[in-house]
Amino acid sequence: MSATGLLKLRPNVVKSFFRTYKASGIPELTQVRHNVKRGNYATLEGKDIAFFESIVGKNHLVQDDLQGYNVDFMRSVRGSSQLVLRPSSTQEVSAILKYCNERKLAVCPQGGNTGLVGGSVPVCDEIVLSLARLDKILHIDEITGIAACEAGCILENLDLKARELGLVVPLDLGAKSSCHIGGNVSTNAGGLRVLRYGNLHGSVLGVEAVLANGDVLDLMSDFKKDNTGYHLKHLFIGSEGTLGVVTKVSMLCAPQSQAQHVAFLGLSSFDDVLKTFRDSRQFLGEILSSCELIDANSLDASVNHFKLNSPIEGYPFYMLIETSGSNAEHDMEKFNRFLENGMEKGQIIDGTITGEVGKMQEIWKLRELVPVALIEDGFCFKYDISLPLREFYHIVEVMQERVGNLATRVCGYGHLGDSNLHLNICCQEFTQEIYKCIEPFVYEYTSQVKGSISAEHGIGFLKKNYLKYSKSPAAISKMRELKQLLDPNSILNPYKVLN
Amino acid sequence: MSATGLLKLRPNVVKSFFRTYKASGIPELTQVRHNVKRGNYATLEGKDIAFFESIVGKNHLVQDDLQGYNVDFMRSVRGSSQLVLRPSSTQEVSAILKYCNERKLAVCPQGGNTGLVGGSVPVCDEIVLSLARLDKILHIDEITGIAACEAGCILENLDLKARELGLVVPLDLGAKSSCHIGGNVSTNAGGLRVLRYGNLHGSVLGVEAVLANGDVLDLMSDFKKDNTGYHLKHLFIGSEGTLGVVTKVSMLCAPQSQAQHVAFLGLSSFDDVLKTFRDSRQFLGEILSSCELIDANSLDASVNHFKLNSPIEGYPFYMLIETSGSNAEHDMEKFNRFLENGMEKGQIIDGTITGEVGKMQEIWKLRELVPVALIEDGFCFKYDISLPLREFYHIVEVMQERVGNLATRVCGYGHLGDSNLHLNICCQEFTQEIYKCIEPFVYEYTSQVKGSISAEHGIGFLKKNYLKYSKSPAAISKMRELKQLLDPNSILNPYKVLN
């Protein structure tokens, strides 16, 4: 299978996701629910518009039809920005921020606007700074695998270019066809291949960022090793545009795999799931590229809502295990040994394995459509948490017990190989009763087992009240001091991350 | 081969290195040469000693025989500290720093003291804060591979414990048997397996650090994914103890490989070296674990000084390529195809490949003893730089031309797979003439091709005057502001990293 083939299905998934979520009745104006008070920023005046026009030109200063910029992908936050600026260079970004900082105008940097925590849209009337026109691929080195591009480059575009050279971008997301590299870096995006390629702190080699005062910090590097002073680039990886605006990125691409295989397995207990994961690391070692968990309730949702055929059924737990290697024959042999071992031990009850593109796509659909299918129940509470593997599934059972008949479905799926659970609680409609039954309990529970209340989605606007469950007061205080140091007027992406 | 077997040779190498370097005539009191002016710190008084004794106890407050703490591994810096404190817990570290901060007493945190840039020893009379007693392994999870330990834990001890569980620490260094994890993290140590496992920003999951004012920042995490706010831990990875003292670390271990193979190849041009590296990524993909370059002058040094036998000779370039995989038969087949391809194309002229532990050790010796052998010429100027691969070897030729007969040997070897060259210029003794011929030219050259003037060794004390060649004034200014924020009295590891 070519991974590209597999990914072709995703743009539709994303579209459908958006459509169904829109119809699901989630309140759009979350900031009203949260009682957001507009910060003490200046208000846009005619002279500001004139200045911005002198920088980006008339065509890239947008004042009409801003719905697409004001509302996030989940339709959970709707800002009321009156102005979108679409600069085409780092220098233009710098001039805009310098001016906004002096004038105390709030700015919301925006990439592909595919974030899930309301981090990429204005909350009040911030100026939207769209990075969409900074979309150039700067270079890709075939030998070292090092690629550099501007922040507005779409992930899939960089990946397609890398594949022409036998390389692959070490990041793969459902939103691949619309998300920007700059946004990926700013949110430390996770996704489907963290198990194989690690996170962006490891694979990003350099960034260029524009600070709130307009200063350009050139931390670009084409090297895996650079131990010259503080590693400042990491300040901009995962700080969600609140410390600076990422304008360029260089990263290390991996060699493209020659072969892929996918197995879909049925298991009778979570204990067997854990043992199978441990064995997958041992038997598949360097070729293991995904290890996903889907529980029966999750599979039921995608199978029924999308009329899919699951190759196996009737088990409480399913695992999707993928390998990517440089020799199909070798990989298949390793995979077979792994499966034989699991079945001999009785850990794996049933399963199917394939290396055919079409069949692998069918299997991936069972997993990838789960989040979309779950929304069809009506309303869905979604949590993205990291948990110790021994506690990984327990929270699903605890939650089933807690919410009882209030929910139509409580289920868990996700990136088992990264200890990242997507816990979902579905109901016919949002009620305060079920909401209070779930929150803040779910965060307290996660905090008690020292998990992370946001594994890969970030904090953004929607989770900032829960930050305390994963970060100590000392850490939050240090975050505030960093924010104060780098953005003393707090113009960058206000109302996000920190309260 | 077990990598452990291989590593057993290293403690001797290290010892020998120390011995020979000592005899090589490098000036010991570099700080005199650099004209260091003692900072405006308080001077140790009786009341201070009494306080420290109340914290660490009489036995762990050392005032005599401090040579081992005052002199670095390379004997290039000699401090004049009068006091070493050996706390046994984070709380004790915290109490010490809080006191020192209030009293304005300078502190030099020290791990295994194996650094190569004078970062781990006092420059003047700083109090040495040894982390050696914080040596506990806290836990290692067999399934997820996540390990946590105190900062003073010796790298090899953690690795041996991990191997008992089928895991391997994703870091391998010559100084493995004496360096501390906390020091590795503080210096973002590189080494022999960065090609395979990436750098510590990717594999360190959490740190606990004590700030200059004694505040404990608990950023420990047992998760690969944690997107809750700013990723503060990276401030302490690679900042060489100047922003805080790392007291605990958690990191992700990799599954231990079942098989290893090593090839030693002869090539006739650097262009062929590059092509062979590119092919190694393609043919060996996920099993490639090291790709090292050794030029003829480097090999000649280790062969002649240590009376070693090289399996092949007479080529201008040699490559050592290592694979680590989960199936010896599969790995060997891949390796053979790679070698056949290289020989058919005429890129590889000759070579040998082995999977036998003893023979692999013999081959690794040829590479690992190069840095030691080069010192035997008398005096050796050593540079650790990252360069674009297309420029990688050019600097060796340029330097040969520049220094001409002033040098006994100009050579290059290193981690080709990480674009990390160790450039060495040997001479009978240090003279101003050859020194001026080399510096600052070598840094200017590196800067011009946008390389890094310190790939893996750090800045420490010895390279701080050259930081400007790899970091922009804006970046250096931001580093200063961070230092001011986290350590306003500048008590932590003064005279290092920043001027």
From TrEMBL, chains A, B:
Keyword list, A-Z: FAD, Flavoprotein, Oxidoreductase, Peroxisome
Compartments it resides in: Peroxisome
EC number, as in UniProt: 1.1.99.39
Catalytic activity: (R)-malate + A = oxaloacetate + AH2
Entry similarity comment: Belongs to the FAD-binding oxidoreductase/transferase type 4 family.
The organism's taxonomic lineage, starting at the top: Eukaryota, Metazoa, Ecdysozoa, Arthropoda, Hexapoda
Alphabetized SUPFAM superfamilies for the sequence: FAD-binding/transporter-associated domain-like (SSF56176), FAD-linked oxidases, C-terminal domain (SSF55103)
UniProt key word Cell cycle: no
Assembly and interaction partners: Homodimer.
InterPro entries xref list: FAD-bd_oxidored_4_C, FAD-bd_PCMH, FAD-bd_PCMH-like_sf, FAD-bd_PCMH_sub1, FAD-bd_PCMH_sub2, FAD-linked_Oxase-like_C, FAD-oxidored/transferase_4, Oxid_FAD_bind_N
Protein name, per record: D-2-hydroxyglutarate dehydrogenase, mitochondrial
Entry annotated with the keyword Oxidoreductase: yes
Necessary cofactors: FAD
Gene3D superfamilies: 3.30.465.10, 3.30.70.2190, 3.30.70.2740, Uridine Diphospho-n-acetylenolpyruvylglucosamine Reductase, domain 2, Vanillyl-alcohol Oxidase, Chain A, domain 4
Chain's gene name: LOC105224336
Domain of life according to the entry: Eukaryota
Enzyme class: oxidoreductase
